[in-house]
Amino acid sequence: EATMYESVSSLVQDASRHDPVVIVLGPSVSPQVLVEHLEPLLKVRADHGAVMVVHPLSPEMVRSAFRAGVDDVVTADGADTELLGAIMRSASRIRAHSEDARPPAVTNAPLPPTSHRRVVTVFGTKGGVGKSVVAVNLAVALARQSAQPTVLVDANLQFGDAAIMLQLPPAHTITEVALAGDRLDGELLDGLLLRHEPSGLLLLAAPPNPEAADQIGRSNLANAITVLRERCVYVVIDTSPRIEESTLVALEAADDILLLTNLDVTSLKDARLALQTLQALGIQQTKVRLVLNRSNTQGGLTRADAGRSVRMKVTTALPSDPLVADSVNRGMPMVLSAPTSKFALTVDELARALRARSSANAT
Q1: Which of 80, 155, 165, 337 is the most buried (most CB within 10 A)?
Q2: Alpha carbon distances (Å) from 160 to 135, 165, 210, 212, 346
Q3: Confidence (pTM)
């Protein structure tokens, strides 16, 4: 059922009162006006979709539309099938949000045995490989797939960005774990966790400034991970690209380590050295999964080349997607903002593989 409106403001006002809808706008109104009106609505109604019809199309305008939460932008002189496809993709995202992006219905379900609970550490010794993006999206995916609590620990103590990527004001951070010292217990730690309402994910945020990282000792982080494992089915840890105390704690506590790399010579060299470091630390290679991010970049190297270079089989290859950067800027992980994208589907598949791995290891 379609409804026509004479003005953008009347459409937005009416749409805010409706059940999930796909809004189609333009091209008679300027894209800037459309974005200004749509952004406030789409920020509070993730169950609404929007497609903009414009003429002409410009990269700046497309970026502005995506940042505002618009699902797709098509040209006025394009084929009807292009517009129809955009509407169908938007509707598909809304359905996925309605079915999967809600917090788990069972929030107090009993936890499985300790052997089924997993600590998953996302690790990489080269900055810029997308480690935090993968950690955040994976944690959200695990939270959506499980009825029991999932927590993300931002152990990049100097420059952690998980709170920003989830649009969560860091009212509490891991600094308070250090202040609690030996008094840290489950009840106290519960009060320090931030909750991401769209997914139900819990977050132990990094300190608000780099200087605060010095207050957090090795035992503080280790104790926090131990307590969280007692209260959550999955503990995902984002780490610093440097081999420092917090990184070592996260690696030693891990049941699964995702070694992240990109498809370029320097990233692969660093990944090989990182794998050698793990071996020197006595960490079993069976815990490590090699994850290739931006796997479809055009640099002359292939997934097989990556495996040969690192001397380990690539278990997951995440594609490059321009919407990833927009999702970071909007504070809405790809698994929620673009659940049917290849990137999001691959993250979901990785989450399911980790869940299956935990069940297999427990038997």
Answers
A1: 155
A2: 11, 10, 9, 12, 24
A3: 0.70
